[in-house]
Amino acid sequence: TSAVAEQLTRASMDAGPEEPEAAELEFAISKEIKSVRVFDGEYADDICDEVAAAARACIAEKGSFSLCIPGGSVVAALAQMPADAFDASKVHLFFANEKIPSYPCKEGGLDAAKKLGVPEANVHAFGEGEPAAVAESYSSLLASHASIDNSGAVPSVDMLLLGTGPDGHVGCLFPDSAEIKASRAGKVVLAGNDARADGDFVAISLDVMNAAKCVIVSAAGAGRAEMVAKALAGNFGPFDCPAGLVEAEEETLWFTDKESIAVFDEFADIEDEDELEEE
Known about the structure:
Radius of gyration: 18 Å
Number of strands: 10
Largest sheet: 7 strands, mixed
Low-confidence stretches: 1-21
Mean pLDDT: 88
Order of helices and strands: EEHEHEEHHEHEEHEHHEH
Structural class: alpha/beta
């Protein structure tokens, strides 16, 4: 069933007089529990705002903040975080995925931690070794770390940041792969090999992604427009759009821009016209 009919609101967002127009539109798809924000241009500052607000709230409530990060432009956005945004000594960084043996996410995470002021001891990267052993070790870490809620079936981090690919992959969970098909099996970290990940990799499962308290899914640019429309409208098969399957425990935020939301908007307009004709 299309989720477009569940569209609730579209509200103009004021970015302030000195900043470029930030979020032009925001709407929610209630059935999928997703909030979609459409930005006119870059939104790195807005990612930082969400992370900072979550960090302050979690630190005030429980004395720590667990943030799970990917590689690439999403984690690079954290470089724009103001130095005094939160108590960085109380932040623990975990990783959504890693390529083995190149470890690019670890490198990007250490850079981000340095800029944020997060102690290197609080950066919990994947270890070295065979992928299966690395996955098992990291599963144990997530299941035992004090900053992570382990009251449920799988570990639940406070916030997870995810980038997306035009094919709908998130982390190293690719369409129709063995790893995405392992969803709902209670797995924590998976080891795999896929040419789309340049070979061996480890990645948190969809179960862990969906156990996160809050997830920000970033999808910008015209190259992701078809994927965004598919993911938000719910027009995909059981395993062919992993991004569309991400649904956090409390809040799922999709950050898009005018280019990446364009196809979805066209689809929504058609749905609206069909509904008017039926009336």
